[in-house]
Design brief:
It is a single chain. This protein has two domains: about 60 residues, 2-Layer Sandwich (Alpha-Beta Plaits), CATH 3.30.70.1140; about 250 residues, Alpha-Beta Barrel (TIM Barrel). The strands form three sheets. An eight-stranded parallel barrel has the order 7-8-9-10-11-12-13-14, surrounded by five helices. A four-stranded antiparallel beta sheet has the order 2-3-1-4. Strands 5-6 form a two-stranded antiparallel ribbon. With about 325 residues, the chain is α/β, with parallel strands linked by helices. Strand 7, helix 3 and strand 8 form a beta-alpha-beta unit. The protein is elongated. It is built from ten helices and 14 strands. The two termini are about 40 Å apart. The model has no long low-confidence stretch (mean pLDDT about 95). The chain binds phosphoenolpyruvate (PEP) and manganese (II) ion.
């Protein structure tokens, strides 16, 4: 971190400030130019509060040289991380597809969809049991009973499962769940993120509706700093001024994140656009952008779905998409 010192700072004030920084365990490299004095802070500057440094009477500017997300940063961990769940792997040359209904509705629904997406090549089964809905009057998910049905589908098909955790109090129900999903609305629920440090299983962290990619990385850092380095990032569209799609898929976040972090990055085309006819195009684009996989909503009867039917593919549409994706994955040098 670099601090530019105000021109009128007295020698005593500057010495006191340097002493204060050194007390915090930092080495301070001082450079006196003809115009300006600059301090280079060497050491672990992650815990320094940029805002309070800026507010200090001796400081005119603060510049971070290193990213504040050390554990998530590729600079500190150059090799791409591979995160495994059952037989599925995220990162390391695979294009891994997660598929399933938005919400678990009943046993026949989730088992039937699980069988068909597995046959088409999906590696992980999704299904929401605790649903974050905009309206309190909408279907809120089956809760623990939904997780039981998802686990029954896992036993039948052998597919690892992912489902969303909304509150720490639900964690006990997630013992046999393979990947814990943290939804867009909870991306900055810092207490929840800290709790996941001890979860002992992969976390799929979805980008918040209005979160910058740096904030997404800081949220990943929360989980990692708390002791769980198995974090998969998910771009799922952000809120912008335009509403012709449900959200705006920020596809450039994929190559940017992959340059910044060693964590796997996947895309959710379903929540990004909100329209089933557009999902295959965005799925292909995600593969071409270098994503490590996608998460797609699939429903056997989208018109009657209790949640997000309009953005769900039928099993047949999903099967056709997977055939096309295998060609895209091949061009990217990845296995589907
Ligand atoms: C979901 O994947 O079921 C979901 C609710 O997504 P998001 O958190 O991205 O809105
Ligand atoms: Mn959904």
């Amino acid at each position: 971190m670099i601090l530019v010192i105000k021109k009128n700072t007295s020698a005593d004030d500057l010495a006191a400030f340097i002493g204060q920084l050194e007390k915090q365990g930092l080495a301070v490299h001082r450079s006196d130019g003809t115009e300006q004095t600059i301090l280079g802070l060497i050491g672990d500057t992650r815990s320094l509060n940029e805002e309070s440094l800026k507010a200090h009477c001796a400081v005119s500017r603060v510049m971070r040289v290193q990213a504040p997300y050390k554990l998530a940063s590729r600079a500190f961990h150059p090799a791409s991380s591979v995160i495994r769940a059952g037989n599925a792997a995220f990162g390391g040359g695979a294009f891994t597809v997660i598929a399933g209904p938005c919400s678990v509705e009943n046993s026949a629904q989730v088992c039937g969809i699980a069988r068909s997406v597995k046959q088409s090549g999906a590696r992980v089964l999704r299904g929401g049991a605790f649903k974050p809905r905009t309206s309190p009057y909408s279907f809120q998910g089956m809760g623990g009973a939904g997780i039981d049905l998802l686990l029954a589908a896992k036993r039948e098909t052998g597919l690892p499962v992912i489902t969303e955790l909304m509150s720490i109090s639900q964690l006990g129900l997630f013992r046999d769940v393979d990947i814990i999903q943290i939804g867009a609305r909870n991306m900055q629920n810092f207490d929840l993120l800290k709790e996941l440090g001890g979860a002992g299983k992969p976390i799929l962290l979805k980008r918040g509706l209005a979160a910058t990619v740096k904030e997404l990385l800081m949220s990943a850092e929360y989980v990692m700093a708390a002791g769980n380095e198995q974090v998969i990032l998910c771009e799922r569209g952000i809120r912008t001024f335009d509403s012709y799609t449900r959200n705006t898929l920020d596809l450039s976040a994929v190559p940017f994140l992959q340059r910044e972090t060693h964590l796997p990055v996947i895309v959710d085309p379903s929540h990004a656009c909100g329209m089933n006819w557009m999902v295959p195009t965005l799925a292909k684009a995600a593969c071409a952008a270098g994503a490590d996989g996608i998460m797609v909503e699939v429903h056997d009867n989208p018109e009657c779905a209790l949640c997000d039917g309009e953005q769900s593919l039928t099993p047949a549409e999903f099967g056709a998409l997977m055939k096309t994706l295998s060609r895209y994955a091949e061009i990217e040098g990845k296995t589907l």
